[in-house]
C-alpha cells in the first residue's frame, strides 16, 4: 500500500476476510487478479482506458488499473443489458468503442499525435473538454455524445476503483458487513475491527 494515499497506514481490510462468507470472499479476492486476456477491448483500447482512468482517479498503479480495465471489459463483453440508458444514447459497447476512437481522432486533429503519445496535460485537456461537451465536433463521430461518454467512463472507472480491496484499506472502509455486521453505528463510534486513523502511527 502507498501510505501517502491513506490516513490509515497499517490498515489492511483483507485481514478481516475470515469474517466474510465464502462467496463474498471469493468475489473480493478475484479483484486482486491475475486477470484473463480481455474479451472485448483491444490492446490499444486497454492502454487508453488506463490512461483515461489515471486522469479520473489520479492513480495509475498497475495492479489497480488492471482490475479497472478487467471490470470494464467484462461489462462490455456481457450480454446482460444496461440498467438505464437514454433512448438516443448508443448502447455502452458502442459508446465506449466509438468514444475511444473519437478521443483518438481528437488527439490527431488537435495535436497531430496519438492520444497515448500525448503528455498528461494534453490528454487531460481532451478529457476535460468531453466533460463540458466542448470538444471539437468531428463529423465522422457526431453519433458520440460527449457528456454521456464522459459520464459513462467516470461511472465505470470510479465504480471499479472504489471496489478494489487496496483502495478500501486506504479510505478506511471495513469491507463487506455480512455476516458479522456493523454494531457501533452511533456518530463517531467504530467497531474494534474498523480502521483507526492512528493505526500504525507512533
List the helices and strands in order. HHHHHHH
- Computed CA radius of gyration, to the nearest angstrom: 19 Å
Number of helices: 7
Instruction: Estimate the mean pLDDT confidence.
Output: 89
Q: Which band does the percent of strand residues land in?
A: under 5%
How far is the first residue's CA from the last residue's CA?
18 Å
Shape: elongated
Largest sheet: none
The class by helix and strand makeup works out as: mainly alpha
Low-confidence stretches: none
What does this structure look like?
Helix content is 48%, strand content 0%. The protein is an all-alpha fold and 202 residues long. The chain has a domain at 32-163. The longest helix is centred in the middle third of the chain and has 20 residues, at 92-111. The model has no long low-confidence stretch (mean pLDDT 89).
Secondary-structure blueprint:
Layout: H1 22-30, H2 43-57, H3 62-77, H4 92-111, H5 120-132, H6 146-161, H7 165-171
Search tags:
202 residues; mainly alpha; 7 helices; elongated
What's the quick description here?
This protein is mostly helical and 202 residues long.
